[in-house]
Amino acid sequence: MTVKGLMLHSVATPQPEAEVFINAWNKPNITKCVHAFIQADGKVYQTLPWNIKGWHGGKSYSNNYYIGVEMCEPATIKYLNTACTKIKDNNLVGTKNYVMGTYNTAVELFAYLCKQFNLDPMTDILSHKEGYKKGIASNHGDPEHLWVKYGLTMNDFRRATKQALESPFLVRIITNSLNIRTSPEIANNVVGKVYKNDVYTIIETKDGWGKLKSGVGWIKITEKYCKRL
Ligand SMILES: [Zn+2]
Question: Ligand 1 center to residue 4 CA distance, Å?
Answer without folding.
Answer: 17
